[in-house]
Amino acid sequence: MKERIQIILKGIFRENPTFVLVLGMCPTLATTSSAINGLSMGLATAFVLMLSNMTISLVGQLIPDKVRIPSYVVIIAAFVTVVDLLMAGYLPDIHNTLGIFIPLIVVNCIVLARAESFAAKNGAVDSVFDGLGIGLGFTLALTFLGFVRELLGSYSVFGHKLASGDGIILFILAPGAFFVLAYLMILFNIVKKKFIKK
Amino acid sequence: MAKESSFKNMALTLLVISSVSSAILAGVYELTKDSIDAVRIQKINRGISEILPPFDNNPSENVYKKFVDGDTVYVYVATKDGKNTGAAVQTFTNSGYGGKIVLLIGFLADGTINGIKVISHSETPGLGDKIDPGKHGFSLQFNGKNPETCKIAVRKDGGEIDAITASTISSKAFCDAVTRAYSVYREDVMKKGKWDGNTGATSKQ
Lengths: 198, 205
Prior knowledge:
- The complex is a heterodimer.
- Helix content of chain A is about 70%, strand content about 0%.
- Chain A is mainly α.
- Chain B is built from two helices and five strands; from the N terminus they run αβββββα.
- Chain B has a five-stranded antiparallel beta sheet.
């Protein structure tokens, strides 16, 4: 059990997909214009990651090497579409907020990277925990990024307006995503050096 | 160890994976189809009652369709005590920043805009998505305006609509959708006098 917790913590800190691996930058930059968008995108990705990691670690041994990537993509795309349809049918409000971001999970390279580098070589249970850890790391990073951008860009926190006015629009736009990501990465590395021993 | 990458193995693996995935997707699609449809119809019905004065018929059954500019505009005519109280027009534009925008616009009997709801859009979050009345006051400025007497266009184009800051393309697209809705409503409902829900307005083309 201790090892499993290690796998989860590794996903959040030592191999944080956004701040350390710097993977999946498209959804990171595109969907974090508000904290709630970042959070929902992160959770949906975490869910798909766990399912795809589990499936790929179970059937991975049966797939010939040369066609493994197309196979993984088909499996991941199937799970994403299932999530998309289920949300459209049963959670229409959340589906409305996320809109086009859900199908974007298919092209999120974190999911493919974990399938290739972890799930294909490890057992099903470990792979689920790896998906959970990486998913949580991604969710935390996206929520934090969205939180800062929303605060500066529209003066609000999780949709609640703190001050009147439009905010510094730059932070809602694409360049703002790069600025905030860069400063958060610096912050993350300072914290990591201080508290986490190698 | 992974299986040998022979042609037969590769083709077989991809065939099996694709077939299983399609089967699962088909199953989930069938499972969720009814509730997705129900959600959509409910959204339209709720939208109609929010943007029109009280009515006593069922506008979602009293619908007039017209094919314009490559897509369909739907006119849901509302009546009360047999008299027309207005119509909700489901309109669209393809010139949004993120592509298509679908709106539901409530017109009173004389053509005055009573309310607008956004059905779907793909505008930039935080910028163009302010066309949604829940996020910004932009769409509320249309209420009470009659496109017959008021030019529906952004001020830059000589109209009377204040565009959303940093989202001129979305604002222009919104005006385009409103104009399209009004032209269908005026030409095919107001001028032809297809008020009676039981006869004219239900005619399909």
